[in-house]
Amino acid sequence: MTNTKDPLLQPFRLKHLTLKNRIMSTAHEPAYSEGGMPTDRYRLYHVEKAKGGIALTMTAGSASVSRDSPPAFGNLLAWKDEIVPHLKRLADDCHGYGTAVMIQLTHLGRRTNWNKGDWLPVLAPSPIREPAHRHFPKEIEDWDIERIVADYASAAHRMQEAGLDGIEFEAYGHLMDSFWSPATNRREDDFGGSLENRMRFSNMVVDAVRKAVGPDFIVGIRMVADEDWDRGLSREEGVEIARRFAASGKIDFLNIIRGHIDHDAALNDVIPIQGMAASPHLDFAGEVRAATKFPVFHAARIADVATARHAITEGKLDMVGMTRAHIADPHIVRKIIAGREQQIRPCVGATYCLDRIYEGGEALCIHNAATGREGLIAHEIARAEKPRKAVVIGAGPAGLEAARVLAERGHSVELFEATGKAGGQVNLMIRNPRRKEMIGIVDWRLAELERLGVPIHYDTYAGPEDVLALSPDLVVVATGGFAQSPELESGEDLVVSSWDILAGAVKPEGPVLLFDDNGGHQGMSAAEVIANAGLDLEVVSPERFFAPEMGGMNHVPYATLFAERGVRVTINTRLKSVRREGNGLVATLGSDFSKGTMEERRVAQVVVEHGTAVNADLYFELKPHSRNVGSVDYPALVARRHPLPKRNPESGFDLIRIGDAIESRNIHASIYDALRYCSLL
Ligand SMILES: Cc1cc2nc3c(=O)[nH]c(=O)nc-3n(C[C@H](O)[C@H](O)[C@H](O)COP(=O)(O)O)c2cc1C
Ligand code: SF4
User: How far is it, in rounded angstroms, from Cα 639 to Cα 362?
Assistant: First the structure.
């Protein structure tokens, strides 16, 4: 039932614009652009949130106003006229659902790369390197300032032409605020020194933009109001900047940021990931609202509706950003309105989405595989024409998702799990307490399966006869895998797996050598558990750095812990063999780069992480009896047509194998398998 008094559902008046509720998605570049343009994939992604009832979607993230601000992570090119029709279509479509559309504009300054786009030099107020992008910026000159100010104005005008409801400037870690911050501005001219001088460039931009778009167009600023950094912009000066913008009459809202983003560890404090405190800057944003008495927006891990509601009820914010929360579930508002809050798919803070864009990929949610694929797969599962009888084996992420999707399709589904618990490898991940939120991936699906009336048979090992006895129309094998050891010259029987450590099956005993050539969370989580047990630990990786399958933001907590606990990380090194000597073990290490180089380590335990070997006996036993004989028509699957050929017409059932039962991958791949197949069957 709708709660019309819900503070989150009350409209907010911003100048002439009525935002229909208090929930927004803040700017975030999902890297879905094509040639810097927001084409269909981009548009459909935003339209989905509009369908889901969001009041305001801030498009782009760091759309570039100038040629010498080339995309750092797939950003839109707001300096090109050809962007206008794309944005117009996006805005028109979102407006059709009553959702306001704005865009974030920026000059990235030193937070991009000179070796991208047109190979123009990157620049900053002073030639101080940004650690994250590693470039030494040119000191900005007077003619640069002139042309960039003009670029901001023409980009803003383009956005107005596209029919957007407004713009916001990005002023944290980019060019605008790098003038404000003592950490990045050492100038002695009219653009350095006093706060007035340091604000000169941003004021010039605001004035030029206002001239270009007139007094009515909405212009806001997403600004750092405290860099929380001894060398950076202080809280006093930051709040003073906010006050000055509020008093200027030229800015319509403040979107508050606290912290600095010039390296990964600092970025994590601005955009906290799982295991970190929720809504850490909400009170600060509220203080800025109180100090300025001005519309304040803010986002930083306000992932659940209760916290969002608290932010509005307590007058801390005017608009609450629930950005990753919408990547996980674009229909949050619709579910609140319908009184189905408990059905919101939770954002578990895995930050797979953001880590992917920094690694050159596109933003994908670890457990919502429809996000960013709206043109291919609907978020709302359509009912099948003909209900079928489906049997799913394995209640890990793949099997749970398959059962959910098939039940939504209207099929009758039974789910079998050999152990006493659903969740598969997620149950291992959460043995690292810092990652306990991952259980949300399992719990949400279990709640959905209960709602959909899907029976789960725990502690039930389903063999081929058991499955065939059920006379199914469809069998989904999601039986996962087993931990496996890397190939060693000798001593494979002497090592234990990261699973053994995480599951608690083997007690860690120091000193430990942990060899990880899988490169993801599994090995590092085992390392975290071992280090937290206070044991002496060396992590060995054959790669150029440890855990390369993990992005920068997820790297931070491991790197922090390793530094704090004295964990040694040895790169470019491979475990060759293990032998027993006395009470302990001797690990022999070699190098892919130098054949003769060998070293030895005397340890009590050698832990290895080498992904999983498939557990697919059931699949191979059922395969000859199935209608498709296990085969898949990949072109049909990709083109979203029925993907299972009829090779054995006498058979009564189709057979699919998904997740780690095919090969060792990750949760997203498992859930995507389940969704992409089952939504077609
Ligand atoms: C994939 C991705 C890209 C982002 N890119 C930008 C960006 O370009 N500009 C920006 O101001 N914030 C960017 N952000 C940060 C978000 O706007 C937001 O501040 C952050 O996700 C914290 O809010 P949340 O906890 O509600 O997700 C990005 C976030 C994500 C997940
Ligand atoms: S990947 Fe993780 S952080 Fe990103 S939206 Fe999905 S659940 Fe949230």
Answer: 20
Q: Determine the pLDDT at residue 132.
A: 94
Tokens of 407: 């039940």
Ligand 1: nearest atom to the Cα of 26? 17
CA-CA distance, 288 to 238, in Å (whole number)? 9
Q: Are strands 496-497 and 481-483 parallel, antiparallel or unpaired?
A: unpaired
Residues in the chain: 681
pTM over 0.70: yes
Which atom of ligand 2 sits closest to the CA of residue 364? Answer: 1
pLDDT interval class at 234 (50, 70, 90):
very high
Q: Calculate mean pLDDT across residues 339-356.
A: 97
Question: What pLDDT, on a 0 to 100 scale, did the predictor assign at position 3?
Answer: 63
Q: How many other C-beta atoms lie within 10 A of the C-beta of residue 532?
A: 14
42-56 pLDDT, tens digit each: 999 999 999 999 999
Angle of helix 439-452 relative to helix 397-408, nearest 10 degrees?
A: 30
* Structure-block tokens of residue 680: 């077609």
Residue 193 Ramachandran class (φ > 0 left, ψ -120 to 50 alpha, else beta): left
HSE-up of residue 351 (Cα within 13 Å, Cβ side): 27
Question: Residues 251-264: what's their mean pLDDT?
Answer: 98
Return the ligand 1 atom nearest residue 324 CA.
27
Euclidean distance between CA atoms 207 and 245, whole angstroms: 11
Name which of 26, 64, 312 is nearest 175 in CA terms: 64
**Ligand 2 within 6 A of CB of 223:** no
Distance 271 CA to ligand 1 centre (A): 7
Pocket test for ligand 2, best of 45, 273, 276, 327 (most atoms within 8 A of CB): 327
Averaged pLDDT, 529-535: 97
The arithmetic mean of pLDDT across residues 119-132, rounded, is 97
8 Å CB contact between 527 and 329: no
- Indicate the average pLDDT of the chain: 97
User: If you ran DSSP here, which 8-state letter would residue 623 be given?
Assistant: G
Query: What integer pLDDT is reported at residue 4 of this predicted model?
Result: 74
Question: Is residue 292 scored above 60 in pLDDT?
Answer: yes
According to DSSP, residue 435 is labeled: G
* H helices, E strands: number in the chain: 23, 27
What span, in angstroms and rounded, lies between the C-alpha atoms of 70 and 564?
37
The CA distance from 204 to 146, in Å, is: 9
For residue 167, report the phi and psi dihedrals to the nearest 5 degrees: -135, 160
In short, whether 308's Cβ falls inside 6 Å of ligand 1 is no
How far is 334 from 670, CA to CA, in rounded Å?
27
Indicate if ligand 2 lies below 6 Å from the C-beta of 353: yes
Rounded Cα distance, 609 and 494, in Å: 14
Rounded mean pLDDT, 346-364: 95
Q: For residue 2, name the pLDDT band (cuts at 50, 70, 90).
A: low
pLDDT of residue 331: 98
In the structure, what pLDDT confidence band is assigned to residue 384 with cuts at 50, 70 and 90? very high
Q: Is 322 in the pocket of ligand 2 (CB under 6 A)?
A: no
Please give the radius of gyration of the chain, using alpha carbons only, rounded to the nearest integer. Answer: 27
Ligand 1 atom 7 nearest Cα: 61
Check residue 369 and give its pLDDT: 98
86: Cβ below 6 Å to ligand 1?
no
Does ligand 2 have an atom closer than 6 angstroms to the CB of 328?
A: yes
Q: What is the pLDDT of residue 242?
A: 98
Quote the Cα angle for 621-627-633, to 5°. 100
Q: Please give the helix or strand (H or E) that residue 355 lies within, else none.
A: helix 352-358
- Kindly state if the Cβ of 352 falls inside 6 Å of ligand 2: yes
Does 351 sit in the ligand 2 pocket, CB within 6 Å? yes
Take residue 646 and report the two structure tokens written for it: 């009829």
User: Ligand 1 pocket, 587 CB below 6 A?
Assistant: no
